[in-house]
Design goal:
The chain is of the alpha/beta class and 259 residues long. Helix content is 46%, strand content 19%. The chain has seven helices and eight strands. The chain has an eight-stranded mixed beta sheet, with helices on both faces. Helix 1 crosses helix 2. The longest helix is centred in the last third of the chain and has 33 residues. It is globular. The protein starts with a helix and ends in a 6-residue tail after the last helix. The C terminus is likely disordered.
Amino acid sequence: MQQREQRDSDKRRHVRYQLVNMESMASYTNINPTNDNDCMQGSIENMETCAKRRDSDEEEGMREYSIAFLGSCQVGKTSIIQQFLHHNIDNVYTPSTTVKKYHKAVFMDGKIYDLTLRDCPGVTSFPESPLAEFSTYKGYGMHNSQVIVLVYDTSNEDTFNYVRSLKDQILKYKSNPLIVVVGNKQDLAADQRVARTDAQQIVKGWKCPLVFCSAKYNWHIINLFTEILKVIECQADAKKEDAHRYSSHFINFNRCKVS
């Protein structure tokens, strides 16, 4: 009887061990692109490597970032997120009426990022302050997000004009915003209403990245999120450089002088 109970206990413990390690394996997606394949997908790291990274991550601290996806209705915000998370999309369009949050840990360039992806329904305007956002768009987290991704439909010029207006409001009401512009639905080249070169010229003046993709065919989705993380790292490096410059100035200013 005791041997049977011991076997059952060992079996339950083994199942729990498998579940924990399966969760660990699925939690980390390698976002490092290995080639320029248009439809490349993130490869899941092996279980042993993930376990080591999770251990080291507990020591160093995981980098947590919130990313808000904004844009007009039917530009493909939800599809972009679904392709990144599941490599699949829902072919039946369902309008987003409430904000949806997704969590994903990704591994790039030796670092682990804990991402909160916010799929925001279309907004009439960017709120002036966190308080205004709380009263009008509670839970959207636009002001608290480190990165704002502005998505437009390349076959619909109105959606690009919407992004232009939203960008101006973001620069006015949000301090030091990180913005990435996305031209989705590149698969509809025959119906394109916003010329690629025109969009590149306009966004170049905004001094933020522009990524073209097709959520329907998973084209450049990984490239998009790679660009988002690069933007995050550029800001982090700039802050480190500013902090180092300030600390060096402070040390030199307060250095003891012997006459």
